[in-house]
Amino acid sequence: MLCIETMPASASSCHRVTASQWRQWPGRRWPWLLLALVTLVAIWLVGRILFRSSDPTWARIQESGVWRVGMDPSFPPFEELDGGSGQPVGLDVDLARAIAARWGVRAEFAGVGFDQLIDVVAAHRVDSAISALPIIDYRAKDVAFSAPYIEAGVILAVPPGSAIAGPDDLAGRRVAVEWGSAGDAQARTIQQKLGADVELVLRESVDAALGAVVTGDADAAIVDAVSLALFNRAGHDLIIVGEPLQPDPYVVVVPVDAPDLLGAVNETLAALEQDGTLAELKARWLSAESP
């Protein structure tokens, strides 16, 4: 039974109301039903907020089992189309497949022009881009950049056994560069710092600059790391000394609103670095034995 108090002007009284009588009072019943409904809806909404994936891109990859990767297959040995099968091959292709394998999904490649790669990632037309892409600071509002997987910046290359260990050892030396390149600019900066006794050996191409070191016409060359790797594929053995003079790391690009995907990429890159897989890929595609 329910007790309902009434407060008349003269006195207070309590009327006993049976359950059957309560059910006959719809005006009393509906507020409680409405409160119960509102409570249930609130609980449902809170659950949706708490357990909803913060990264729909990562959730879709896990659900579909497919990681859509954009690349421009025109930059060997990082990515190109195989002449026989027409399928993409290269370091970036193998890297994407290695990452996908760790996630238990399949990498699916989409050919995209290099200048459009950032835009298609930002628009979610692909999940990521792996295509010898550097960090582009002004696009950080549109996409996110992973940890580096290879350093492609400007470096100092010398023959094995050289006494040159870094840029400070270039005083009195001949330094070969591709005229007008980033390496040329770095060499001129070093020349200003050390003095005019740093002789610049200007060549028309990166290969020609590196060739000057091989033939003894220069003591060192300042070029980008990828060009050196490709040059060494022809059977040369020039080495890098010191730190990059101008870092230019290649990274994986993901949508700016995909924090879980970015975290998964970085975690997997670290694992591939630690277990030697990344080194194996570099050796395969950036060595003299590369296909």
Can you give the helix content as a percent range?
A: 25-40%
What CATH first level of the largest domain would be assigned? Answer: Alpha Beta
CATH homologous superfamily label of the largest domain = Periplasmic binding protein-like II
Outline: elongated
Class by SSE composition? alpha/beta
The CATH architecture of the largest domain can be given as: 3-Layer(aba) Sandwich
Order of secondary-structure elements: EEHHHEEEEHEHEEEEEHEHEHEEHH
Tally of distinct domains: 2
CATH topology of the largest domain: D-Maltodextrin-Binding Protein, domain 2
The parts where pLDDT drops under 50 for at least 5 residues are 1-14, 44-52
Polypeptide structure, described:
- The protein has 291 residues and is of the alpha/beta class.
- The protein folds into 2 domains: 56-151 and 249-285, D-Maltodextrin-Binding Protein, domain 2, CATH 3.40.190.10; 154-246, Periplasmic binding protein-like II (D-Maltodextrin-Binding Protein, domain 2).
- Helix content is 40%, strand content 26%.
- The chain contains 10 helices and 16 strands.
- The strands form 4 sheets. Strands 3, 7, 8, 9, 10 and 16 form a 6-stranded mixed β-sheet that branches.
- A hairpin with a 3-residue loop joins β4 (74-75) and β5.
- α4 packs across α9 and α4 packs antiparallel against α10.
- The longest helix is centred in the first third of the chain and has 26 residues, at 26-51.
- Mean pLDDT is 87; it is low at 1-14 and 44-52.
